[in-house]
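Sample pair:
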Amino acid sequence: MENESERNETEEDVRIGFLTVRELDQTTYRAGLLVTNAKGKPLELRATGPLRPDRIQTLIYGETLIPTIAQELCGQPLIESLRERPGIIAVDHEAFLPLHSLEQPVVYIRRSGEELEIELGTATGTQEPHTEEVLQPPAGRFQPVVLKFSAEVSEDQTHTLRTKLAGLFRVFDLVEPFDRVAKALQMLQEQESKKET
């Protein structure tokens, strides 16, 4: 059960980042990171330029291509570029989970019952299996979400993150900001395509 100080921190101080990478066409990836306050209001948006791996890179990277794009080329640079430092980074692809650190906790979030539209793979190397749990919204306001934490997250940190996310979930849908970022990335892609023609 959360105490008053945990609830106050959730309601007043928590900033959350929503990190996603999207395949915008068959040759272009782009990632974005939106930071919001505890009410879902945007504070900062960062996006990468288009990433276009060629056929040789696709062949030599193989199954490590997507984790490399997600972590090294997109995730870490976007997180480091932020002025507004979020207390939690929410991601919609498991390939981002290895970015987790004590200072910058990462949690994978998806709607309960939904399958991934595209399989972005997992990190290279061996890791313990991640555990999933369902977070129910208050009074059925939103669809339940599935949380998945990095294998490196302790039980205490899992409890703290779950409490903060539950507080945020009382106010706004924890999956909807990913849609905002995806639309912004698509718009950037369309604007750049027009400039090139």
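The CA atoms of residues 34 and 45 lie 4 Å apart.
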